[in-house]
């Protein structure tokens, strides 16, 4: 059952089953509801770098992989379709609602209004008011309602109009969502997805620019993922809905209008996996959500200066994909974490601790963590810029790290 | 009037008893008869924005008999839990339900196991009512693996999925939105079932209650909110905590009914009425006027904020088990001796369950990590600092 991880060297062998499986997912069926047939094979796309290091891995299976960098999908570059990130989220949501009648959405203004970021646009007309439910402004209660519905087998998706509003639902998320599976001795599963935009936007003010991943990360029993591209947004949304665990999906206010070409065929990403954005040799840069773009911008400058950074989008904030991260650390021996969370108690702080505990021997330099300043996000544009990590700071941090 | 009739006939039946035993007079009603019997509730229902149900309750001899047995089991179980707690076999928080048994039993009599019940932390007896066994209760209280939640929940986390008992929640009021969610799921799947969401007079001042009420009323969810008003929110009396202690009226646009929660037949009638109402018209509030003999929990003596006279007064006049006992004796459904035998049997069952639970082992250390996550998508994950197994879709 639960095997404790002993040390760095032990690699848990990958279960050798094919992922090219045309069977539909086995889900318990309720009396009157049945799941529609899946439309074909479901592919699990994993990040690319692991294949390059095949010699060091004990795994013996081939998985079709796609490098999920912007604009580059290996198998379906020409046949895919282009869309914006919020449309990708909507596509993933719609496909899952089509597939499983137990999937429902609830949140403020998700129905008739179409969602404040248009993620649920058109869904209420298609699926009706009960399946795409406009709730009153009562976050604690409608999150609790979603959890209660999930206890009976429904698969609700609760949308917080802004992640910061979910602080009102913290009790429900922590005690009921995270812990019910445990305290009931496994009787109840809570297959809920809680999603919403967070992060620092364009001068939205302190209360609307919060990063809740740091507050939620200690809650046992939940999974947290952060999407950053249309490709991983759709894949993570589908994976989150299909997962039996409660998943919190963190989106970012400024990333909703990113455009990318994504495959036509159905795909689901793994919730616990990190994404190799740019393989490299000199330094491992770990990042997630919007900071990925700052890092990639800095990477351009760094490449011109002769550095070769390896950029990993960790995607899974809880639990961390220590396998991918570890392989990278063993290769580069230097780590830089770039995040939008606060310095104190943020995701970077936990990640620093996790890497130090597990990969200390492989580090040539102390881990550098660049986070937002521990201040409420100011309104003034210049001040807001200084709270968040900027590409110039990333470049100088890498230069210092690689000396 | 009804009470005086019962009092006189009890006296009479006490006198008659040796005579009947000697002459072997056949009893008027046997204890397993299911012939309908109509008994009036002791107090009228008080309603808010709805028509009160009639005071005449349909029951039967066998039902009354089962009420007595089940309530005696619950009472004995809670007293035994008291002693176990003092013997330090039960730790942490232990909230006892003795005095309030009529609410649990009356509710069960009016509904099916397909209807859902969710309550707060005073949940041992509701768990039994929903089909839980004494062994599971004592096992869980003592933290053994034979417990209802495998020892990982404790006193405040009893659940029983197969009979739609959704717990068992520690945070005051947090179960109310969950209850609305259960009702939402029932409406979503078009089942003809209802959800009973129980909360206390202390929780009645939570904002979550009103938020949930609003949503339930807005969407006509089949939710029945039951306020178990035992008049004390831990140490604070209801008049010191609530500006308007008429909890059945506080739903405003939601109809309400005030029920004598110590009268199991009144509870049964009210719940039956509530179920019919909720399926047609949406939510309803039931206020059960009840009382707990113990303090809020085992760490509360229960006498600093109320007098011992008050407690013993309620016990003498309104005790739910005594009321059913008197009914059984008055209608000659059972004799004193039979009832005493039942109580002896119940005591023995409880002692057996405790003995069996004591022999049960504590959970294995590896159980610490089970049930944190579900194995969905083939995932096993142990947290941020442990290796996790790769995922494959089945």
TrEMBL record, chain A:
Spell out the SUPFAM superfamilies in the cross-references: Thiamin diphosphate-binding fold (THDP-binding), TK C-terminal domain-like
Task: Give the location in the cell.
Answer: Plastid, Chloroplast
Enzyme Commission number(s) of this protein: 1.2.4.1
Q: What's the protein here called?
A: pyruvate dehydrogenase (acetyl-transferring)
Single GO molecular-function term? metal ion binding
Q: How does it assemble?
A: Tetramer of 2 alpha and 2 beta subunits.
* Listed PANTHER family: PYRUVATE DEHYDROGENASE E1 COMPONENT BETA SUBUNIT, PYRUVATE DEHYDROGENASE E1 COMPONENT SUBUNIT BETA
Domain Transketolase-like pyrimidine-binding: residue ranges:
83-258
Q: Which reaction does it catalyse?
A: N(6)-[(R)-lipoyl]-L-lysyl-[protein] + pyruvate + H(+) = N(6)-[(R)-S(8)-acetyldihydrolipoyl]-L-lysyl-[protein] + CO2
User: Which lineage do the record's taxonomy fields give for this organism?
Assistant: Eukaryota, Viridiplantae, Streptophyta, Embryophyta, Tracheophyta
Q: Which InterPro entries match?
A: THDP-binding (IPR029061), Transketo_C/PFOR_II (IPR009014), Transketolase-like_Pyr-bd (IPR005475), Transketolase_C (IPR033248)
* Annotated Gene Ontology cellular component terms: chloroplast
The task this protein performs is described as: The pyruvate dehydrogenase complex catalyzes the overall conversion of pyruvate to acetyl-CoA and CO(2). It contains multiple copies of three enzymatic components: pyruvate dehydrogenase (E1), dihydrolipoamide acetyltransferase (E2) and lipoamide dehydrogenase (E3).
Sorted UniProt keywords:
Chloroplast, Metal-binding, Oxidoreductase, Plastid, Potassium, Pyruvate, Thiamine pyrophosphate, Transit peptide
- Enumerate the Gene3D superfamilies for this protein: 3.40.50.920, 3.40.50.970
Q: Which cofactor does it need?
A: thiamine diphosphate
Automatic annotation (TrEMBL), chain B:
Q: Where is this region: Disordered?
A: 297-316
Q: Give the Gene Ontology MF terms in alphabetical order.
A: pyruvate dehydrogenase (acetyl-transferring) activity
Q: Which reaction does it catalyse?
A: N(6)-[(R)-lipoyl]-L-lysyl-[protein] + pyruvate + H(+) = N(6)-[(R)-S(8)-acetyldihydrolipoyl]-L-lysyl-[protein] + CO2
Dehydrogenase E1 component domain: from which residue to which, for each copy?
69-365
Q: Which Gene Ontology BP terms does the record give?
A: pyruvate decarboxylation to acetyl-CoA
Bias (Basic and acidic residues) occurs at: 306-316
User: Which Enzyme Commission number(s) are listed?
Assistant: 1.2.4.1
Q: Which residues form a coiled coil?
A: none
Q: Which domain of life is it from?
A: Eukaryota
Q: SUPFAM superfamilies given for it?
A: Thiamin diphosphate-binding fold (THDP-binding)
Cofactor requirement: thiamine diphosphate
Spell out the subunit comment.
Answer: Tetramer of 2 alpha and 2 beta subunits.
Purpose of the protein = The pyruvate dehydrogenase complex catalyzes the overall conversion of pyruvate to acetyl-CoA and CO(2). It contains multiple copies of three enzymatic components: pyruvate dehydrogenase (E1), dihydrolipoamide acetyltransferase (E2) and lipoamide dehydrogenase (E3).
Name of the featured protein: Pyruvate dehydrogenase E1 component subunit alpha
């Amino acid at each position: 059952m639960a095997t404790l991880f002993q040390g760095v060297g032990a690699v848990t062998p990958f279960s050798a089953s094919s992922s090219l499986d045309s069977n539909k997912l086995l889900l318990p069926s309720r009396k009157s509801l049945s799941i529609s047939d899946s439309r074909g094979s479901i592919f699990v796309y994993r990040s690319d770098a692991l294949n390059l290091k095949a010699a060091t891995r004990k795994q013996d299976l081939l998985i079709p992989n796609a490098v999920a960098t912007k604009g580059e999908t290996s198998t379906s570059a020409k046949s895919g379709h282009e869309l914006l990130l919020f449309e990708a989220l909507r596509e993933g949501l719609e496909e899952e609602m089509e597939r499983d009648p137990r999937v429902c959405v609830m949140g403020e203004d998700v129905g008739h209004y179409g969602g404040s970021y248009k993620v649920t646009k058109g869904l209420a007309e298609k699926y009706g008011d009960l399946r795409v439910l406009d709730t009153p402004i009562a976050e604690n209660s409608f999150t609790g309602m979603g959890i209660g519905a999930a206890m009976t087998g429904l698969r609700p998706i609760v949308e917080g109009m802004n992640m910061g509003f979910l602080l009102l639902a913290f009790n429900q998320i922590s005690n009921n969502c995270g812990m019910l599976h445990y305290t009931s001795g496994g009787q109840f599963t809570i297959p809920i997805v809680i999603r919403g935009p967070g992060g620092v936007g364009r001068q939205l003010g302190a209360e609307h620019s919060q990063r809740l991943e740091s507050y939620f990360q200690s809650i046992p029993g939940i999974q947290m993922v952060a999407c950053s591209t249309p490709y991983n947004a759709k894949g993570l949304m589908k994976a989150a809905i299909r997962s039996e665990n409660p998943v919190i999906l963190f989106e970012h206010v400024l990333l909703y209008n990113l455009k990318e070409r994504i495959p036509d065929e159905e795909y689901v990403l793994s919730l616990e996996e990190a994404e190799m954005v740019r393989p490299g040799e000199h330094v491992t840069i770990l990042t997630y959500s919007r900071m990925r773009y700052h890092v990639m911008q800095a990477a351009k400058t760094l490449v011109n200066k002769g550095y070769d950074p390896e950029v990993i989008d960790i995607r899974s904030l809880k639990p961390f994909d220590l396998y991918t991260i570890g392989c990278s650390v063993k290769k580069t021996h230097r780590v830089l974490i770039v995040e939008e969370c606060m310095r104190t108690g943020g995701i970077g702080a936990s990640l620093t601790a996790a890497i130090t505990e597990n990969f200390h021997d492989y580090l040539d330099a102390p881990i550098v963590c660049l986070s937002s300043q521990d201040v409420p996000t100011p309104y003034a544009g210049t001040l807001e810029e200084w709270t968040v990590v900027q590409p110039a700071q990333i470049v100088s941090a890498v230069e210092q790290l690689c000396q | 009037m009804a009470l005086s009739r019962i009092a006189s006939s009890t006296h009479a039946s006490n006198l008659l008893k040796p005579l009947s035993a000697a002459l072997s007079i056949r009893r008027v009603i046997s204890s397993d008869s299911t012939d309908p019997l109509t008994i009036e509730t002791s107090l009228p229902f008080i309603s808010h924005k709805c028509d009160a149900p009639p005071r005449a309750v349909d029951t039967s001899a066998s039902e009354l008999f089962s009420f007595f047995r089940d309530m005696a089991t619950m009472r004995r179980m809670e007293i035994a839990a008291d002693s176990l707690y003092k013997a330090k076999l039960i730790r942490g928080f232990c909230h006892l339900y003795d005095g309030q048994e009529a609410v649990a039993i009356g509710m069960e009599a009016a509904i099916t196991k397909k209807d859902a019940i969710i309550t707060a932390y005073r949940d041992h007896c509701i768990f039994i009512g929903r089909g839980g066994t004494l062994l599971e209760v004592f096992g869980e209280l003592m933290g053994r693996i034979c417990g209802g939640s495998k020892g990982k929940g404790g006193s405040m986390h009893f659940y029983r999925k197969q009979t739609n008992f959704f717990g068992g929640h520690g945070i005051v009021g947090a179960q109310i939105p969950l209850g609305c969610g259960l009702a939402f799921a029932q409406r979503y799947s078009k089942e003809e079932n209802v959800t009973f969401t129980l909360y206390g007079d202390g929780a009645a001042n939570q904002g979550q209650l009103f938020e949930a009420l609003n949503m339930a009323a807005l969407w006509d969810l089949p939710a029945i909110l039951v306020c178990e008003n035992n008049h004390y929110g831990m140490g604070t009396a209801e008049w010191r905590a609530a500006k308007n202690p008429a909890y059945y009226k506080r739903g405003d646009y939601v109809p309400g009914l005030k029920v004598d929660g110590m009268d199991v037949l009144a509870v049964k009638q009210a719940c039956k009425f509530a179920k019919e109402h909720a399926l047609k018209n949406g939510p309803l509030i039931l206020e059960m006027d009840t009382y707990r003999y113990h303090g809020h929990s085992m760490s509360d003596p229960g006498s600093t904020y109320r007098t011992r006279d008050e407690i013993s007064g309620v016990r003498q006049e309104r005790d739910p088990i005594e009321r059913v006992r008197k009914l059984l004796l008055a209608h000659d459904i059972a004799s004193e001796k039979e009832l005493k035998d039942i109580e002896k049997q119940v005591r023995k069952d409880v002692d057996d369950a405790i003995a069996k639970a004591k022999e049960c082992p504590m959970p294995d250390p590896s159980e610490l990590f089970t049930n944190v996550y579900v194995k969905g998508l083939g995932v096993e994950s142990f947290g941020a600092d442990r290796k996790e197994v790769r995922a494959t879709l089945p």
